[in-house]
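so the lab meeting is tmrw and i was supposed to have these ready like two days ago... anyway. pasting both below. for each one the top line is the aa sequence and the line under it is the structure tokens. i havent really looked at them closely yet so no promises
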Amino acid sequence: MKKTSKKAKLFAYEFAGGAAMAYLLQVKIKGTSIKKEDKIEGFYEWEDLFNGKFYPMKVMFEDLMKLEKSAMVALAGPITESLGKNGKVTWTGEEDGYDYAMEVLSWVGPPDESTEKLFELYSKRCELILSCPDVWHAVEALAAHILQKRRLSGEEIERFLYQAFKKPTGE
């Protein structure tokens, strides 16, 4: 039996949570990977909803929806990791997703109290979504799948999540 490090398991949960949130928000998933070398590293990638253009941001409904989706996908990874590790969400401010989410939210305006309020709002929304039993079950199953396969394309992740969220039809 292959031994899996604690760090690899945390990466898998983080990536699975981000992928599940992206899937639920209909954001295209590009792929994920956990490297097997001595040093455990990994990446999780999703669609850039702004096509690399961050400024200036049009204040329109579509852009605000993109902003919300980007922030929630960025937050979902560290929130999932924290839920898996602590059973609750605790922020240290050192998480990768924290910095990215704060950057995304700062596009609304300069970092201030309103940015912190948006961060709290989206964090809580992510936590509530990820804590739903059906979603958490899908995240756990995907994390195990990521650990087993170590590298998955976006299409593989989306197929896996489609099956995980598919409800049996009544007869």
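ok protien two:
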Amino acid sequence: MPYLTRFSRLACSGILLFLAFSLCAAAADSRDRTQFGRNITIGPDESVSQATCFGCSIRVQGHVSGDVTTFGGSVLLENQAEVGGDATTFAGDVRLDKEATVRGDVTVFGGRLRRDSQSSVGGDVTNMSGPGWIVLIFVLPLVVVGAFLALIGWLIWRFVRRPASPAIA
């Protein structure tokens, strides 16, 4: 019996090691770029499939075959940059320089869109500029949920509290 347990542990270790190496190999072949807090720069001779940035900005000089998305950062498409999908930013700006191309949509929530007249966008352009949209999208739902929870707490407090005992004379 101890031999079987040792074999089971060895087999499980081998499977986990194989999975770890497989995931590393798949990540090395991936052309996606995702960063948290560090800016992404795609050079003029580079091509990536997707670019996503949380709390940072994306600067594209080359080609992105898919989407470019930032949360709390900006998107800068310099001369002759090309995005095959959408360019989207939440709480950041989008700047399209001369001859920059976005084949999909350009969407800006809570930022500004600066676009050169020679840039091209294949889809829709949506610009909800200013911090008011960020308040509306993120803060207002939190206020509504907070008010709902306060109402539930008040109702529970009202129906659970015990009536005061009568005074004994």
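from a quick look at the 2nd one: The CA atoms of residues 98 and 118 lie 5 Å apart. The radius of gyration is 27 Å. will dig more after coffe
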